[in-house]
Design a protein that fits this description.
- About 25% of the residues lie in helices and about 15% in strands.
- It contains 3 helices and 4 strands, in the order E-H-E-H-E-H-E.
- The protein has helices at about 30-35, 50-60, 80-90; strands at about 5-10, 35-40, 70-75, 95-100.
- The N and C termini lie far apart (about 45 Å).
- The mean pLDDT is about 80.
Amino acid sequence: MQLSKGISRKGLISTLRTLDQLQGAHNLMHLVYKRIRMEGFFFDDYTHLYEEFLDTVVPYIKQGKLTYAQDIAQGLENGPAALVCLFSGLNADKPLVAITPQ
């Protein structure tokens, strides 16, 4: 990281092992030495921008300029495996479980 830059973090759910074994940030002194600001954020901080986001992003998706990945497990019986993927970070994004045929 360069001096006086900032970083953001999201998606930390994959680092959660158990409540008594939370994995914390490592090497925090690098933030101090390089004067880096780290700030967390929550999706609810930006819900007021949702309509503007859709107006901007949906045309890109329709034009194929922006793609997305979905990790869909078929059937409720595959739900536990999808949950394991959520906490292990093996999936492309948040796993979905389709409980009815698509």
